[in-house]
Amino acid sequence: MKRDLARIAAEAWDVAIVGGGIYGVCAAHEAALRGLSVCLLERGDFGGGTSSQSLKVVHGGLRYLQHGDVARTLESIRERRTLLRIAPGIVRPMACVMPTYGHGLRGREVLGVGVALGDLVGLRRNVGVAPGRRIPRGQLLSRADTLARCPGIERLGLTGGALWWDALSRSTERLLLAFLRTALSNGAAAANHVAVTGLLRDGAAVTGVRARDELTGEPFDVRAKLVLNAAGPFVDDLLATLGHPPRTPLFPQSKALNLVTRRSPPEVAVAIASRARFEDRDALLAAGSRLFFVVPWRGLTLLGTRHLPWDGRPETFRVTEADVATFLGEVNAAWPGAGLARDDVIGVYGGILPRTPTSGAADEVQLAKHATLVDHGRRDGIPGLVTVVGVKWTTARGVAETTVEHLAAQLGRVAGPRLGRTTPLIGAALGDDGGAHDPERARTLAALARTSPALGTAVHPASRVTGAELVYAAREELAQRLDDVWLRRTELYLERPLDCAAIARSAELMGDELGWSEGRRADEIARCEAALRRFAGSGER
User: Fold this and answer.
1) 365 with 308: CB under 8 angstroms?
2) What is the pLDDT of residues 169-213, one digit of tens each?
């Protein structure tokens, strides 16, 4: 993969996509598979915002049955099946357990019916999925079996548990990159660290975008028949460049928070009910509290998701120590055996998600439940511009499918078959060890290590990441900055604390590959250290 700004500026594209989160990347992937010429521009790094901050769970939508929303459940099951089919080396099945209490909405009877209904609605959940990645049927567990699988849960009133299966991504960052690599292999072009500063117009019509290379400061224009605004929490900023932003934001914001802890993970994901009162106004069967999930992931335990009000500028977003403390207190209250302290938290995933415009005050955040697709030609008399706002990682590919079919119709093109449902993603095949099999990457890493044996060694004695992986990320995976590599191309950020020598060594390798000056290397080290402090929980840590 190459960051070819000259090509992006020179060609006239069918579609220019603004925003390189999972929704923008999936749209580029789907458009390229359908034969549209497409370029993608991202102001930071691909997936560098909310897309890399998820709980890593690929949801099948079982909880949507609580709302009577069978269509949304079917959509989620279809997209979970698609990801298990096209990225089996990155996405795998995961058992989930919800402890049952009494005979009400958290009781065995109700949850048993829910699991059975989920299996019934998901009869086609394994069509085309490899045997090692198929989703089993759910079941009810005894009290003793539930306690064995879910240590530390509340025992008082426990009657057993309901077990169902969802899926887990080992790395949402690598999964997004697999979509991007596949898009580029089918003719798309993409560039990160490119800010879109405005829209090109011909009368009322949008005919492209004005852009600026954030690495050099150089401005350039991109011509396109259609512009897809997939800029996440920045979608309204792009619309504001037209001179009349919408009265009601397309992306009303809320804060989402997940914690990464060093606690030994349970053998299954566990759903625990918060002690705090919360009413989901759309639920037909309202349980009266939020659900938190305890997720085993890469030898660590993820806790999520806590949703909080947020109405600031997206670029000023951060998770505070108060946010972390509040969430830890709620988890400890709901999971008596956890006994989690701040020192147990090694990292924080925080992002911005769209809420409903009618969400209440305090912490009563109601998340948006459906993606939004706006054709500004039809709605606002501004042809050539379409906005998409997504709500869920799992369904991003499916929303992209619908979006690209709309774009193709606008272009007067036949969208063609839905290849995205079956086309394997590059770098996401299932290997013999159960992980991702990427023969091209493996060959290149081996060749780099042969050429320079020092590249075959780890960047730090406590790390598994080699110097060759950093060089490969810069050369073949569009990594332009040090934090691109530490946080989104490798697992280095999870291996903290590493000493400063590891960061300096990484900057040396990246700098040699990309031609950085000494001043640029120092800037990249400072930037990476700041990003690692934010991952640790706040800018002060």
Assistant:
1) yes
2) 999 999 999 999 999 999 999 999 999 999 999 999 999 999 999
CATH topology of domain 5-50+173-250+369-421: FAD/NAD(P)-binding domain (3.50.50)
Q: Cα-flanking dihedrals φ and ψ of residue 128, to 5°?
A: 80, 5
The CATH number corresponding to 438-535 among 1.10.3110.10, 3.90.1580.10, 3.30.70.240, 1.10.8.870 equals: 1.10.8.870
Q: Which residues contact 154 (CB under 8 A, 6 or more apart)?
A: 99, 101, 334, 335, 336
Q: What is the pLDDT of residues 311-333, one digit of tens each?
A: 899 999 999 999 999 999 999 99
> What element of type H or E holds 162?
strand 158-169
pTM exceeds 0.90: yes
User: Residue 493: which of 461, 457, 464, 454 has the closest Cα?
Assistant: 464
Provide DSSP, 229-275: E--GGGHHHHHHTTT---SS-SS-EEEEEEEEE-SPPPSSEEEEEEE
Cα dihedral 529, 530, 534, 537 sign: positive
Output the CATH code of domain 253-364: 3.30.9.10
Q: How far apart are CA 42 and CA 193, in angstroms?
A: 6
Tokens coding 296:
């085993």
The neighbouring-strand residues paired with 189 are: 39
Q: What are the residues whose beta carbons fall under 8 Å from the beta carbon of 150, sequence distance 6 or more?
A: 97, 99, 161, 266, 268, 270
Q: Where are the domains of the chain?
A: 5-50+173-250+369-421, 253-364, 438-535
CA-closest candidate to residue 488, choices 77, 241, 147, 178: 178
d(CA 318, CA 477): 27
